[in-house]
Write a structure and sequence with these properties.
It comes from Lepagella muris. This is Site-specific DNA-methyltransferase. The chain is of the alpha/beta class. It has one domain: Vaccinia Virus protein VP39 (Rossmann fold, 3-Layer(aba) Sandwich), CATH 3.40.50. Helices cover about 30% and strands about 20% of the residues. α7 runs parallel beside α8.
Amino acid sequence: MENVVLNGCTCYNGDSLELMATMPDKCVDFILSDIPYDLDLNGGGAHGDFCTRKQIQSRKNSSLYFVSQGIDYDKVFSEFERICKVVNICVFCSNKQIGRIMTWWEQRGYVATLLVWDKPNPMPLGNGCYINNLEFIVYVRSKGATYNSLGYDMQFKTFRNQPPQAKERIHETEKPVSLLQRLLLLHSNEGDVVFDPYAGSFTTAIACHKEKRKFIGCEILSKYYEPAVKRLRGVTAQQSLF
């Protein structure tokens, strides 16, 4: 499995389950990841019956389809549980995944909390539709998990951070660095090891570099991995100059 090490950030190009299988027990302080969403891109709903086979195949060939097929919850979360020193996890997810994720962890005795990213100035989808201004984060913790009191304004369950500009994004579902920095500050300390098994644009790595955390991450698709590592290399080099 190819990997690049940049100023405390170790970035792998490969399958995250294969990588986690090589990681020792209790080696990670915090997991912060935007897991593949479980979305219906096959034309479901009122108009689904009228979608042509060609339209459905076109969706399946898109980059978004690949990252919209969810995960094997038992395999992935069992590995998360094993590699965490203390269960301390934030995962971005779709609306459809909230119940399943929270139930998986709560049935095992952990505390699961729903957080919300409220995106300013979202694009309207058209008449008759709710504007898609919310994304969801499930925070899972066990006794002893790091939680830093950062002041009243920093500890709401809602986050308002501007999404990255479309022309600047490497990944379709890329998150703002500032949002990830806030989660890092709340749930980890300087020098901690942060793991992102679905690293995409490696924005978590950039946030870790800025906040002096060690980073391990994995992205399976080279089309994201290569430009993401190039960007991370530029960020770490620039910060080193100052």
